[in-house]
Amino acid sequence: MTKQVQQLDRVIIRFAGDSGDGMQLTGDRFTQETAAFGNDLSTLPNFPAEIRAPAGTLPGVSSFQLHFADHDILTPGDAPNVLVAMNPAALKANLGDLPRGADLIVNTDEFTKRNLSKVGYETSPVEDDSLAEYRVHALPLTSMTVTALADFDISKKDAERAKNMFALGLLSWLYHRPTEGTLAFLEKKFGSKPEIMKANIAAFQAGWSYGETTEAFSVQYEIKPAQHEPGLYRNITGNIALSYGLVAAGVQSGLPIFLGSYPITPASDILHEMSKHKRFGVRTFQAEDEIAAVGAALGASFGGSLGVTTTSGPGIALKSETIGLGVATELPLLVIDVQRAGPSTGLPTKTEQADLLQAMHGRNGEAPVPVIAPQSPSDCFDAALEAARIAVKYRTPVILLSDGYLANGSEPWRLPDVAALPTIEPAFAAPSQEGFEPFRRDPDTLARPWAIPGTAGLEHRIGGLEKADVTGNISYDPANHDTMVRLRQAKIDGIANDIDPLAVDDPSGEARVLVMGWGGTYGAISAAVRRVRASGRKIAQAHLRHLNPFPANLPEVLRSYDKVVVPEINLGQLALLLRGRLLIDVIGYNQVRGLPFKAEELQGVFQDVIDSE
Q: How many angstroms separate the CA atoms of 399 and 360, rounded?
């Protein structure tokens, strides 16, 4: 049967099912093949915090959304064009996001009376008229998978588990995805269990063949590759990009990397990835708790390594005393905070950017530290390099604020030219005839010398008690304490002269409204700005990477616009800093739902502000 092939410029697909249905694996494999095909893409994994939430319930729903296109895109998409619902809970949890006319693929085998009642359905929505506004494809995915695997020497339970591969095969056929990578992946993943491996491959191929032969799908869809700049690309998540940035920082500085970490969602993948790179001088230490992790990292920096610790918001709270010790001893230390929804344990697998004020002020005493935030998954690589550069050059802890959306989301990343990466010079102290002065500062950076312990002639006191200026001896003198507090602050303030000025995207130069964002909101803000401009309105955009200190030209930029809108996934933390530090009023737009902004909602906010001018 010859089937029609329809060209599309973009598609948003969401796989949804029980947390044991393998939706994250299914979405990841579809993403990897899409990246290999050459589409631009952006993903949004969304899963429960529980290791195994109650089966068939709304809290147990796991989903993976993928937006791919033949052109540059910035977000995982506001709403799916296609929803694959593996059970009633997945349907109910996601149906509200589905626009009219969207494709809905439903696994009818799971729509039993018991499963329906778990989520409050009195009758099956597949059999009544409640789904009439969608293009419904009701398929017995589980039983078709079991039938396809009848000849394999595996249990019925193992056969049923392969239904996600059947669904992946069907969607791969429907959207012209390559298959070679998935077949190779299955061979590697289940290599130690040959029969399971063969069964999963057979399920995947059966799904593909079903799409090819059934009359249920009369149309295939094709999305051509996007036009990227020439180069070698790979799909990458924020956590992996950040890990590679840390490895690159070690190579470019010539310093061993020591990662002291305690596992915590959503930062744990950095520890997992870094443990694979011992050949680059990386040493990883899984500590017994957050305090031990940062203590070991700071100790490593004292010993001449680049100490790194990774965590999320609750861990930052525990590490605060040792970060303050890093401020007092003036040693380089990278503190990676992959933010999640709080307070306390909060929503561990959901995103938020509410740790900004904690990063700025969450220590006792006057303890300023630089704060840097990446804007996209691939940008985590560059942000990690920049954080390392500042930590080493200025002898200070640096907090890097990623978030759960960036950490788990993915996009194409053009591999950088390694030869063009910046060199980071540790400039260790050397003994001198005049004697070592551990707090004699560099006149340009105000950084103190970094002395390797055990080096003859560089003996000095270390610890959290206040130091005497220049000599580093313990001092309780009030005037000296005032001097040291001001010197440490001036050192951080001076970094503003060593970072790029804030860039503003204002094509016409006539916009009167500026949108100012930071961190992982970049994609949604940029997509909304595109839509606003397409409507004929003028709007400017700027995005902060350096949150402490602010770029030197920030006051000038903000004062050149009539109104400044600051969207944040918190209750207005950057807005508070802008108002308090620069005495510039801004318009905050805030949501704290554990999810990234949607471009459509931001478009409406921006247009309302412009139209009220």
A: 9
